[in-house]
Fold LysM domain-containing protein.
Amino acid sequence: MDQNQRVFLRLLGLKSLLLFCFVLYFFGFFLIIPAKAGFFSFFEKIFSGSNTNSSQPEMNSQNIPLPHAPLNSSLPAALGNGDMSGAIIGQSAILSVIGPEGSMANIEEKRSSDQVSIYIVQEGDNLAGIAKMFGVSINTIMWANNLNRGDLIAVGQTLVILPVSGISYAVQKGDTIESIAKKWKGDVNEIIQFNDLSPSQTLAVGSTIIIPNGEAPLLPSYTPRGSYRGGSGPYYAGYYIRPIVGGRKTQGLHGYNAVDLANFCGTPIMASASGDVIISRSGGWNGGYGNFIIIDHYNGTQTLYAHNSSNIVSTGWHVVQGQVIGYVGITGNTTGCHVHFEVRGAKNPF
């Protein structure tokens, strides 16, 4: 084989190698390109004669729209103030208020119009916002949750929310719809309708009814020792009796026309005069009063008994002068066993 033949074979081999590399590169490109949706559909349209100017865009995995959760444009203001992960609405149902895309769900759709609800306080909440969210008055929330004037609510605190503005009342012996309506400033027909009662129905003692638009006295504010408010008003000689037997007065007039009468813890506390129990609170700080009782008397005055170890009467009870209503204790803002005794609307005789 001469020199020219060797050169020719070398050139032929080089060309074959280049051709092989080109073919390999070309088909390798087509093996990779199908990962990009829409490439072969382009050739399909050319060979099938389809209209490439169609106004309908082709749907593929790159441009198909994904479903989105609808945003709630009617979110209650009170819920928008905090990062809320859940709330308890209704009697026992737990309702998530964070949607799948982070939007809040509308809790109002889950709430029945006649159910008492439970709400867990969130960051940024206040009573006004919660009341607006549930469509009730601020006082309604305060009455249902034993809140004092000026009390602050805390994150995580559980609040009872009535379905309407008004109060919840536990029926006592001798109560009638008319007497309850009169006592709590409600309307007989509204009570009958809301609680699905009949006008002549006998109320079961211990049952709970809701009094729409009823009113209850707000819990009094506790006045620290050393300050004194009240003391004015008429003097009713012989109308009140000392609420405990024995012991001694450890502090004179202070606070809201109050005196402190000390004795051993567990000493019986008696009603200073006959009347109706309008508040009986047990458990909690209660503005410094601890366990306390307020009795409304027929002469237009009220007496308050605080720091009790226990109360043995309930709201709505009628008591007579000298009846035991509780026992001396050290609950609330106190350092020793005594009863904090207030007379409101008249001079404190003790």
Notes: Residues 31-57, 59-113, 224-229 have pLDDT under 50 and may be disordered. The longest strand covers residues 248-256. The two ends are 141 Å apart (CA to CA). DSSP finds six helices and 17 strands in the chain.
